[in-house]
Amino acid sequence: MYSRAAFIPLTVDAATRLDATLLLRQAMVTDRAATACWTALLAGCGSAARWGLGSELRRLSEATSMQVGTRWWFAEGAGHRRRVAGAQEQIEEAIADGDGQEFALAFVGYDHAMASAVVCADTERHRRPVGDYTA
Which of 27, 30, 86, 111 has the most C-beta neighbours closer than 10 Å? Predict the structure, then answer.
C-alpha cells in the first residue's frame, strides 16, 4: 500500500482536533508543498517547488498566529514562536544546501514546535477565567 510522505502530521492532527478549519487548510497546503520540495531535493532539481515552500511556511505561521491569538503568539507564546522561526530557518538552510535528509529532520522540529504552540495556546485559553481571553 502506498503512503505519501507527511511532514507536519502533529500540526494537522492538532488543527483537526481543535476544529481549526483555516489552520488545517493551510497546514495541508504546506504539507503538500513540503512533499513537492522534498521530492525536488531528492531528485537534485532546482524547480519552483523547491523554492516556493518558504511562502507556505510563512502563511502557516500567520494562520497559527490567528488561531492562537496574536497577543498570545507575541507574549506568552513567544517561546513557541521563536522555536517555530528557528525550525523554519533550518528548513530554509536545508533547501539552500540541497540536503533532503537535513530538510526532513528540520521538519520534525518544525512540526513539533508548531503543534506544541497550537495545543499549548488552546490549553491556556481553557484555563483562564471566563471573560479573561486575550486573543
Answer: 27
